[in-house]
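User: I'm putting together notes for a lab meeting next week and I want to include a structural view of one of the chains we've been expressing. I don't have a solved structure, so I'd like a prediction I can at least talk through. The sequence is below, exactly as it appears in our construct file.
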Amino acid sequence: MAALAVGAVLLGAAACGGNADAHSDKSDGKGGSSGGGSSAASGSQATVTVAPADGATDVDTDGALKVSAAKGKLTTVTVKSKDGTAVDGTISADGASWTPKSHLRTDTKYTVAATATDSDGKATTTQSAFTTLNPGDAQANYGIFNVEANATYGVGMEVSIRFKKPVTNQADVRHAVTVTAEPDVPVEGHWFSSQRLDFRPEAYWAPGTKVTLHLQLDGLKMSKTTYGKQYKDVTFTIGRSQTSVADNKTKMLTIYRGGKVYRTLPASLGDADHTTYNGKMVIEEKDPVVDMDSQTVGLGNAYHIPDVPHGMRLSDSGTFAHGNYWRPASTFGHINTSHGCVGLHDVKGGKDPSTPAAWFYNNSLIGDVVTVVNSPDKTIQPDNGLNGWNMPWSQWVEH
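Assistant: Thanks for the context. Below is the predicted structure for the 399-residue chain, given as structure tokens.
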């Protein structure tokens, strides 16, 4: 995957492999006095208490902020960050307490203004301020995602986030990370592991769709000892509809645009000993030149080709669609000779734009789908690359 907003998923070398006060220990922070300054001029019997204490620092982002009233009921509570962003919260039915609806952000100063009214209608107001904790590297968790702002991707693009550290509070993270589309279409996330969360709709995206990844993780407890640090939106666009089918029997690659045959190219898929996976495979990376080493897929010293042209990765395990200059042109469309990849005729250096491999590379987007059919191999696993389309929707939404 290309280096994006916060980094890139680093895959191995390419190879053609087929197979009241809160009781948290940080809730009160450091310093300050309980509550804030209540206005006594009104003669109100009501009192307002704010936790954490006024002036507190190193305050936990979850569970520490509470506002309560005695001898009266809360009428208004306003909590704002330094930049003026308001914190949504709820006053209880009896007016005795207020709690925020979500976690706070890290390393942020908040101000609180809370008013309560007693039985005679007299009001009192308390104001205070505090600053939340700033987790260090040991406590911070980041998601490395595979989409770039303002980029254009194919109709099969999946949003994949791989976290640096395991996530145990997966339900909370799933609530804080969402993907929306314009025009609207349901998009669901699926946890492949404690460190990988992918998103896709039930069917391929419609061309022209605007898709936005929303990361509201800053301050969220992702486990007992880690906090999220990201708070941003990333919007990209879905381009024209292109899908392709590589038929292991006919040894042809058929490209479809808008559901209609656009072009057919002769291909060479995996040989009898190194068959190509069946199934839907999404182009997740494009490289003009790829270093292909058989050792990366457990094939010993079978090959090492450092200058494979027009490489497009289809799986994390090393399946590619790529140019092949070391076989004669007569091979393609007639003999399967690869170690599990989809090979197309090319020239060394890939400088001839008229070759099938060059044309397919130049006319493909990351996010386009290449489906392999009629191979004797199994269907590729959904988590081997951006290939969740091979998992039924009913199973996808279960986790």
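A couple of points you could mention at the meeting. The chain is about 5% helix and 40% strand. Residues 37-132 form a domain with the Immunoglobulin-like fold (CATH 2.60.40.3780).

User: Perfect, that's what I needed.
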